[in-house]
Amino acid sequence: MLPMKIGVLAVQGDFDAHRHRLEELGAEVVLVRCPEQLNEVDGLVIPGGESGAILRILGRQGVEKLKQFVRVKPAFGTCAGAILLAKEITHPEQEGLGALDVRIRRNAYGRQINSSIRQGKLGDSPMEMVFIRAPRFERLGPEVEVIATQGEDPVAVRQGKILAATFHPELSEDTRVHQAFLDLIGNGTL
Amino acid sequence: MTSSGGSNGNSSLRLKTGLAEMLKGGVIMDVTNAGQAMIAEKAGAVSVMALERVPAQIRAEGGVARMASPKKIREIMDAVSIPVMAKCRIGHFAEAQILEELGVDYIDESEVLTPADEAHHVDKHAFKVPFVCGARNLGEALRRIAEGAAMIRTKGEAGTGDVVHAVKHMRQIMSEMRGLKVLREEELYARAKELDAPLELVQLVAREGKLPVPNFSAGGIATPADASLVMQLGAESVFVGSGIFMADATHFADPVDAEQRARAIVRAATHYKDAKVLLEVSEEVPSAMKGLAVSAIHESQMLQTRGW
Question: Which residue in B95, B141, B169, B240 has the fewest CB atoms around it within 10 Å?
Fold first, then answer.
């Protein structure tokens, strides 16, 4: 079987960290800077970064193309990526791709000084989680499944082929969340 | 809620460099008020540097340049949702303490301000807030990293709009790193001594081929082509200081021009290797600041020689 071709949106953010992780897991990675490149990938990772800046750099045309992509193909967003995938974004309000039926609040834990590394749970098993100026899910739609928690908070969720985490698994050694995304692309489920 | 993100050790450094990772491929812009900060955010800046005066003004007006007033920085923090950085003087750990208390997202211990200590930089490990520091060569970069800097930027020559020394410093750092990779293990000891840098960091760079923290570029970047140039040479993001909001050293640019210039440099940073996009943005962009040739500046007037 050919290795899966995964796009990592590389307009801005920690796309390199995602690339390293995916390559480590045997995927072929394409850094996506132009909308046309979306035609050649089986799934897309939207990295951490500044969600507003990513939206602005993408422009109208880029955003529309991404919206079409995430309607039919698997996508995985971390932090800013999770914000971009959401239907409803607050603090401040912002446009999203609408692929994930959630309300998400930007910078919900505060500024950089409040960034932290915490122990959470992926399913029932412990997992280190790196939160950087992280957002928080405030409302989850009926079709949204929680796959990871930190304390009381849902911190990674799935809806169909869309996966989103408010933390940065690409900045930890643990490969399980990225592996879950690759499984999702390969099998259509977790 | 258990948190291991305190000011201790490895986890703290991962959080500090983590934020720098999020800024990669982006543009960090100098701003002097809330209005400029909003223009920068709207144009796609990933972060803003809150200042009282931009480097071109500091250079023109002279006097002692200090940390910006907290009131001014707070006004900028309240105006935007992107991370806000602010500068402290080299060695001025009390200014850094004030900036940390204020809640800025990154502190730039900067040669653009008048140094407060002739021998010591700030002990950046003592802070929870991350620091960026300037460097002209690998030894300087590694000394700053040893002190706890979580991001390095080339110094270039700030406030000139002349990219020549940003290029010089990026080439210097990149070529010194490449040079380490071909040395034998026992040769690294002598090289560390020559670089005046900690051996462990020299060994790390020789092994990894890159700095252990993100490496950005600053100091004279004024056009989309400048941003592309330094990024093709190895910079992972760019700081644009006076180049966006100044027409020359003493006059602000028209805000509409500034926004267009900001937008163009942001696109150039994303598509830094794509000449087609670079041509497009270069055609749209209004003329850059007048600038000051670095070769016409006497060495004693240079900002880059501050810091040790």
Answer: B95
What is the CATH topology of the domain spanning A5-187?
A: Rossmann fold (3.40.50)
| Beta-carbon separation of B46 and A168 below 8 A | no
pTM as predicted: 0.95
| Shortest Cα distance, chain A CAs vs residue B72, angstroms | 18
Sign of the CA dihedral running B68, B43, A49, B216: negative
pLDDT digits (tens, 9 = 90+) for B52-94: 999 989 988 889 999 999 999 999 999 999 999 999 999 999 9
Q: What are phi and psi of B227, to 5 degrees?
A: -60, -45
Single-letter amino acid, residue A54: I
Q: How many CA atoms are closer than 13 Å to the CA of B97, on its beta-carbon side?
A: 6
Residue B266: list chain A partners with CB under 8 A. 53, 56-57
Chain B CB contacts of A151 under 8 Å are: 1
> ipTM higher than 0.90?
yes
Cα separation, A54 vs B275, in Å, equals 21
B87 catalytic? Reply is yes
A3-7, A28-32, A166-170, B276-280: least confident range: A3-7
Active site residue A170: yes
Residue A79 falls in the annotated catalytic set? yes
pLDDT tens digit sequence for B236-245? 999 998 889 9
